[in-house]
Amino acid sequence: MNCVFHALSNHVKNIYMKRSKKFLVRFLLKYSKRYFPEKIYSFILFIRGFKKFKKQINKEKSFKKFSNGLDRINEHEYKITSQNNEDGIIEYIFDKIPNQKYFVEIGFGYFECNSLNLIKNGWRGKLIDYSTEECLLIKSMLKHFFSNSEVAVENKKIDRDNINQILSENLQERTIDFFSLDIDGNDYWVLKNLKLDNIKVICCEYNHWIGNDVKKTIPYNPNHEYKHDEHKQIGYFGATLLAIYDLLKKKGFDLIAVESSGSNAFFVKKEFSNNFEILSPIKSWRSASRHENETQIKMIKNNMKKLKFEDV
Question: Which CATH architecture has domain 57-311?
Answer without folding.
Answer: 3-Layer(aba) Sandwich (3.40)
